[in-house]
Design brief:
Layout lengths: L1 H31 L4 H27 L2 E2 L6 H14 L5 E5 L6 E4 L7 E5 H4 L4 H16 L2 H8 L1 H15 L7 H44 L2 H16 L9 H6 L7 H10 L1 H7 L5 H7 L21 H14 L1
Parallel strand pairs: 2-4
Antiparallel strand pairs: 1-2, 3-4
Helix pairs in contact: 1-7, 1-8, 3-5, 5-8, 5-9, 7-8, 8-9, 8-14, 9-11, 9-13, 9-14
């Protein structure tokens, strides 16, 4: 319980920092533009409402989701329903994405309106126990309201980026040389806010993934099943074509980040002996043989700051240690 409390404290601290930094500087920028205090509040409120209501629709369209009925995939429905009841949360709607990537995610505005999405690629790459562990991870996100938190926290970097773009490319011009420099300075400040809050949002995303991994381990009492699923998912994503056009928020919803899969694969292999010692059942050699490694270049150390998820090998080792201590 101590570890979970620590993760929860970090989550809310990060959330508070994002809004504190974001609102203070964005308010200052808009005020310097000559917008009144009431105008700023109206602008921010309208933008937030638009994002809040539009986000689920955008995700549905972008992911090409197909909601399934109860007589389709009966085992999937049964497992999700059982895990939701165990977590004491409403049973989410279930949708299938035609993507061949091994992935899953949840989205929505509230627990009652949550949708749990399973990629077709996941169904074909993990066994029944591993799928259950992945679904428990996603139910953990619902229990902890993670998708709602990420939707809210993404508001600050998004609005900061829009303000910065408006100043740099949107036609604002100063009436003098000093006016132009002033406009440029405001744009640079807005970009700085975007950069700082984006990093904080990514840190929050990595924390919530660890939180969901821990929940899955507790719910299934089989941490090794999620560890095995994560290794398979990583190898599958590393062999899949990259999709660099996906936004940070979209990638943060997934159980694993396809853009960091190549680096994760290399780290798993580098720590193979440690992983095998903790979890002898993981067949890394077989996974190596099945991986085509056509996913694109690995990202360096600096890239870890911009990752939406903790390194997969660290997630696997954490799960192995939970098993060891259970």
């Amino acid at each position: 319980m101590g570890a979970i409390a620590e993760l929860k404290a970090k989550m809310y601290l990060t959330l508070g920092l994002v809004f504190a930094i974001g609102f203070i500087i964005i308010f200052a920028v808009l005020y310097l533009m000559g917008v009144s205090s009431i105008g700023i509040l109206v602008f921010v409120a309208l933008f937030f409402v638009l994002q809040w209501y539009a986000s689920p629709f955008i995700i549905k369209v972008a992911s090409r989701l197909r909601y399934i009925k109860e007589d389709e995939y009966p085992d999937l429905h049964s497992t999700v329903s059982e895990l939701a009841q165990q977590a004491n949360v409403p049973v989410p709607r279930i949708a299938i994405s035609p993507s061949k990537d091994s992935n899953a995610f949840v989205f929505g505005r509230t627990r009652k309106g949550a949708t749990l999405v399973v990629h077709e690629g996941l169904l074909g790459s993990v066994n029944k126990d591993e799928l259950r562990a992945v679904l428990a991870h996603e139910i953990g996100h619902i229990k902890h309201n993670d998708f709602t938190i990420m939707t809210i926290v993404s508001f600050i970097p998004m609005i900061a980026f829009i303000i910065a773009e408006v100043f740099f490319f949107g036609g604002f011009r100063g009436n003098s040389r000093n006016g132009g420099a002033y406009i440029m300075l405001i744009g640079m400040v807005a970009f700085a806010v975007y950069f700082m809050t984006e990093l904080l949002m990514l840190s929050l995303s990595r924390t919530r993934e660890t939180f969901a991994d821990t929940y899955s381990a507790q719910a299934t009492q089989k941490p090794e099943h999620l560890a095995s699923a994560l290794s398979k998912i990583t190898y599958n994503l590393a062999a899949s074509p990259q999709q660099p056009g996906q936004s940070t928020v979209t990638r943060s919803f997934f159980i694993a980040d396809n853009l960091s899969a190549r680096k994760d694969l290399m780290e798993i292999e580098k720590h193979e002996s440690e992983i095998k010692k903790l979890l002898p059942s993981i067949d890394i050699a077989a996974l190596k043989a099945s991986a085509k490694r056509e996913g694109g270049p690995a990202r360096g150390i600096f890239g870890s700051l911009f990752s939406t998820h903790p390194p997969t090998y660290k997630r696997i080792i954490m799960l192995a240690r939970l098993k060891e201590n259970s």
